[in-house]
Structures are given as C-alpha cells and as structure tokens.
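[Meeting: bench + compute handoff]

Bench side (C.D.) handed over the final construct sequence. Compute side (W.E.) agreed to return the predicted structure before the next meeting so the bench team could plan truncations. Sequence as handed over:
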Amino acid sequence: MVRSSAKAGLDFESEVRGCLKRIGLKHVDGGPNFKIGEHQIDACGGWDDVLIVAECTQASVEGASIRRLISELRGKQANIRKEIKKKDKYQTYKRFEFTIVIRNIKCTDGDKKIASQKPQIHLIEFQTLKYYQSLAGIIGERGTVFHLLGEMGVQPRDFDMPRLPAFRVRLAKDSLAYLFWCDPNDLLKVAYVARREAGREKYYQRILSSQRLRDIRKFIKDGEIFPNNVIVSFDKKPDFREKRGFDDSWPSWLEIGELIFPKSYTSCWIIDGQHRLYGFGGLQPNPKAQKLAVFAFEPLQEARQAKYFLDINAKQTPVPKDLIWDVQGEMQPNTEDGIVANCIKKLNQIEPLRDQIFIPLAGKRIWGKLKLSGLCQDLRETRLCCERTRSMTSQRNTLIQGLKPERVSEKIAKVMASFLKSVQASCSKDLWDNILLRPGGLTIAFNVFEQIIVHLKHDPTERERDKYSRSFTRSLTDIAPSGSSIRQLQSKLTSYKQRREMLREVLMRMQEELNDPDFGKDLLSAAEKLDDRIIKFERRLAEFIANALGIVDINNLKQVTPEHIWRNIQRLVEQEHVSHPTFAVHEALGLGDIQVIMEQRNNRKVLTPLFTKPEIGFNSSEETKAALGHIIRARTRVHGRRRGNISLVNTYLEIFDRLIS
C-alpha cells in the first residue's frame, strides 16, 4: 500500500494501472476494493501466461522501509498465487511476477540485492513505466510489452522462440554471423532497442521518430517491401543446427541450418533498422506480411555495437548529429572527438552552463537548450583539447600537457567553466542570456578563450582570467550597449560569416582595450583565403540568380522557392531593414538556399542554359549541381565537417566566376 496521504496514494495506484493498460497488458485491475483472498492488490495486469502483481509506494522512506515492503510482499506470494486462480479471468495465467512500483525513492544496492533473492521481487521506478507507456504510443503495444518483460527478466516459453532456417558465415577476426528471413512479429518478441531515455545505463540507440514510423506503416500498408537488412546482435550465443548433405560444390565457408534464438525477450539488440521493425509493431499481426531480412552477429560488446551503429549511420542522413557526438563521448572517450564531446557534456554539469545543453542520451530535448553538436563543432575547431590549439605553431597547449586522454575533457571543461563564470559575473544579465548563452555567443567565447591560452602560454591565473573576461564583456557591451542593440546583435550571429566578422571585431576591440596589439593577432591574420573567396562567390551567385529569375522582392521569391525558404528570407530581410533600409532580398540568400532554388523544376528551364556551356562552363545540369555541392561542403568545413578536395573546389569557383561574369 502507499505510505503517504490516502488520496495521493490512491491517485498513484490509479496512475500505475493506467500505465499498465497503455503499455498493453491485459486484465488490468486493482485498487482499494480489489482483493485476492485476504490481500488488497494495488495493480495487476497480464500478458500471455504471465501476470504482474504490483504494490505501489511513493513515500520518501529510508531503505529499511522498502525492505519491509519487500518482506511483506514476499510473504503474501504463496497465498496470492493460490487464490488468484479462483478468479475466472486469471485462470489462464501460469506464472506470476511480483513487483513494487516506486516513485521518488532511491533504492540502495542493498535493497536491490534483497529484492533479487528468491522468490524475487522486482523494483520498478514509476519513471520506467511512464517511459514504456510513451514507447507504446510510438512503437505499438506488442513491442513495448516484450521490452518490459525482457527488462524484468521474464523468460518466454520454449515454443514462443523463433526457429528459422539460416545461413551462417565466419567473418573477419574469427566472428560468426547469421543471415535469415523472419516474420516481423517473431522478431518483435525478442528484439530490444537500448535507449537511456528510461534512465538506464549507457546506451547508444537513436531516438525513435513517430513521424518516420507513421510513414513506414503507410509504406507497409501500401504493399511496399524493405530490400535491406535489419542488423542485430545476439546477447547470448544462439543454437545453430547445421544441415549437411550438400555436394562438393557448396562453399565450405557458408553453412546452412536451423537457427534457434536464445530464450530471452531481450535476445536481440538492434544496431540498425529499428524503424523498419517497429513499423510493424503498430499494425495488426498478419501471417502473410512480408518477411524481414536480418543480419545477426553473435554476441558483441556494447562498444562494438556502437561502432557498427556509427559506421552505418555516419553514411546516412537521418541520425541526429547531437546523438552521434553523444555516442562518441560514451563509446570512444579517448579519441579527439570523444574528448571534445565529453568536455561539452562536463560543461553541462557545472556552472554557468549547468543543464543548458541538450544531451540526447540523458532525455528528450527541452526547447531552448543549446545543441550538443554545435558546441562540439565549435570546440573542435579551436583544438583546445589537442596538443596544439588552432593558432599554435611551435608552442604546446599547457592546459593538457602531461595529462592522460581520460583527464583532458575534465581539465578543459573546468578552466573553460571558470572563464565563462568570470564572463557572466562581469556582464549584464541581458547580454549573458541573449548573446553569450546562445550558440553564436559561445562560439565567440570559445575562440576568445583559445586566444587567451595562445597569448599567455600558460594556464590563466585568477587575476588574468578576470582581466581578459572583463575586456571581452566590455568589448561586447561596446558593440551592443542596449537591449535593442543586443536583440539586433543576436539576429546577426546566425551564420558562420556573421560570427567570424563579429569575432574579428571583438578581438580588435580587445587589442585596443588591453593596449596589447599582440593579443589575437594570429587569428586575425590567419583568415582563411578560401572561405573569403566562397563568401564573395555566395554574394555574386545570389545576385546573378536573382537577376536571372527576376527576384526583386519577397513576392517574386515566393514564386520560385519553397515556403520554408521564402519565409526565412522574409524574416531576415525585415530584421535587416531596421538598420539597412536598402538591404536587397538576394543579400539574405545563402548557398543552401540558392541550391534549392536551382533545383526547382521551373527554375531549371531558365538557369540550366546559363550554366551548361561546355566551352567555358559545365557539361550538364548534373555537373553544375555536383560542383555547387562541392563548394557548399567546403564552406561547411567551418561547421566541423571535412573540406574535401580544395583544388577541385577552386577549379569549380573559377568556372562559376567565368559564367557569372
């Protein structure tokens, strides 16, 4: 029973029963008037031949009280098992799992150890039930129930486990893998997506997309098929019974036989393809449904699963970059990117950026939080976590000198947090909240901090840190002294070009304010020529496209581009008109916008002849598109991606220059 006020306790029991229903359990019941024998039952619900019987408690009690509940429920088990069979709707249940659902109670290792003794009592946090309730709304009840039973350690019946014809092959490094086709409903019973949104251990899987699942379910209903494999890893070695009798022409490296899955609802960890599988989870079972192709590894360590996940999804577009960075930190912590990711995650744990950054594996995104990927890319570009920072040539980065890789992220996060805390203390709340606590502002702060380290050639003392942080905030305050100018500055920090120009402005003001012409000189003098050339090209191409298509105002733009682009351009133009009334529409177009405009069917009729000129230009519209793509990729190097072939990019720029001229 609930150990708090009566009404709160009854409400909590009702919430638990509601969760059990929405997760997909059958015959859910319980409450103050529901008794089995002489025992009142808070909540219960079943699946197949398993009935879960739950006590609910949300009081803030010490471990001993939890242990008393464990002891009390353990003492009731035998009587409940006997008496429950007298109720007609529960006569089909053969196995019983007894559970205590807790809220706002921290169980000790001792509590868990006592609960795990036979007969076992499961301790389930209400947060976990809410997670599975949410998951059921995304992947469907069947898949969710199997997830819950698997987490509880409930074993399926022998005849429930898939037994399938399969190929077995020995891969590199003496590892075995299997290839087979199966009914998606069989795979739903044993597959498991490991995700830390439930508050579990360090897991790596991507956050499931409801929209993508809806699209896939429609795809299935339309009779379409999936030609590619779902990739899984068994958590225990499966049983494989080889079938012999083939002639000598059969390759010795390929075996065929019967594959028998391990006896567990969590016997398959999905590395890739969960959306394809769980697309079936929200549909009615259909024996005639298409069979899924599955490639299965024998048991892999979680780090190896994560590596395959990264290798696969680095070449696909839908995986959020925030998640990729988070996984890098968890699974490859001693690599350069892993150190960068963990540095940003540690910044999220200490002031002044505590809980300000979205960490995918820690929970769902809350609106307004900073993106992990953007901050990681900014930090990586400064190379503060490396032996030499971006602006260093011969000198070494004293911040990390002599440190083992696992200590680097902690050290960098600590000194950066101290600098940012000093910055926060020396600036107005308006400037901190609306500039420095935004992606563009932190980009500038990271770069300024790198220049401080380069200039000092040692860890900043407290006095030096305060000196440079005050100079930094005074420079920003000179640029944006009022609330309206702060808002205007905020709108100007949305692109790399704007941030780079603002950084140069800040460094020059700091040189003057500090009366130190050597401060920041390396970064100021090392502006990348290719980036300058691309920026100039962007403006010339935008004007050329606008003239060719007759884009003078927003109404013209609406006729030649998708709504999301013209609305964004309209917003930017309105902002610029406040201080620059003559600002033209084409001045707000970026290379990405131009690429979309050039790909619109009606626009191609006008633009293709202008660029397809074999004697001085490109041979086809496809070649034009590819050339612009190379230039855009070179430009996005500043966001942390690889430049590509610089020589080729320069060649394409020369061709475009000739055509535009």
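W.E. noted at the follow-up: The mean pLDDT is 84. C.D. will use this when planning the next construct.
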